[in-house]
From TrEMBL:
CDD domains: GATase1_1. PROSITE patterns: GATASE_TYPE_1. It comes from the Bacteria. SUPFAM superfamilies: Class I glutamine amidotransferase-like. InterPro entries: ChyE-like, Class_I_gatase-like, GATASE. This is Type 1 glutamine amidotransferase. Keywords: Glutamine amidotransferase, Transferase. It holds the Pfam family GATase. GO terms for cellular component: cytosol. GO terms for molecular function: transferase activity. The keyword Signal does not apply. Residues 46-181 form the Glutamine amidotransferase domain.
Length: 244
């Protein structure tokens, strides 16, 4: 069964993450609801929900968000491997009973440091990480994680950088899927706003470009690990089905 990837806008694709899934032997299919494709009712092969410029509560801007939150909630309840990235993470938070708000610390953009928490030890996705860096571009943030969420990674500006919910669902506030080319497209499209806020788009781009190899070394194994979880679950389901 293929992993379902929900893409909210063309400017925020799965990027290198899609290639890492393929490297690990996992098929995937991309759903583009902004082009009129329906959000599926189920995603039994695994689910990845990507980022986007909308807020997680802006259903009038992105009318498919309620269906996406419903899909996330079903996957979490069913133990389907699920990964929410930035907006996807915030949608998971809301879908599962937490709170997302406009971040009091303002815009978090560029390359930022992440620190593993003790609870991350042994985690199937993030357990092998030491201190890491990741691409960020967000202004909203999880302020109250869902009940039962296990915090895994924290940061200086916003503490809830990653958590696990249940046995197989993860929320990542940062963009593990974004390489320097994707990030440069974001900063180019918002250069005026970034400059007005005191940021240098050129400096932000240069820093991400310099650290591209480190980003790949850090997040590629996470992509492989998620693919492995999906393949393992699919294999179990196929064996169970063959015995009926």
């Amino acid at each position: 069964m293929a992993i379902t990837i929900v893409e909210h806008q063309a400017e925020a694709p799965a990027g290198p993450l899609a290639g890492w899934l393929t490297e690990a032997g996992a098929d995937h299919t991309v759903v583009q609801p902004y082009l009129g494709e329906p959000v599926p009712a189920r995603a039994d092969g695994g689910l990845i929900v990507l980022g986007g410029s909308a807020s997680a509560w802006e259903d009038e801007v992105c009318p498919w968000l309620p269906a996406t939150r419903g899909l996330i909630a079903r996957c979490v309840a069913d133990g389907v491997p699920t990964l929410g990235i930035c907006l996807g993470a915030q949608l998971m938070t809301i879908a599962c009973g937490g709170t997302v708000e406009r971040g009091a610390a303002g815009l978090e953009v560029g390359l930022t440091a992440l620190t593993p928490l003790p609870q991350a030890a042994g985690d199937p996705l993030f357990g092998g990480l030491g201190p890491a860096v990741a691409v960020q571009y967000h202004q909203d943030a999880t302020t109250v994680p869902p009940p039962g969420a296990v915090p895994l990674l924290t940061g200086e500006r916003y503490p809830h950088q990653a958590y696990r919910l249940g046995e197989a669902a993860w929320a990542a506030q940062f963009h593990l899927e974004a390489d320097h080319e994707i990030f440069a497209r974001w900063t180019s499209a918002t250069a005026g706003a970034l400059t007005a806020a005191g940021h240098s788009p050129g400096e932000l781009d240069a820093e991400v470009r310099r650290e591209q190899d480190r980003l790949t070394r850090t997040w590629r194994p996470v992509g492989h690990a998620f693919a492995g979880l999906c393949l393992s679950r699919s294999g179990v389901r196929e064996v169970q089905a063959s015995r009926r």
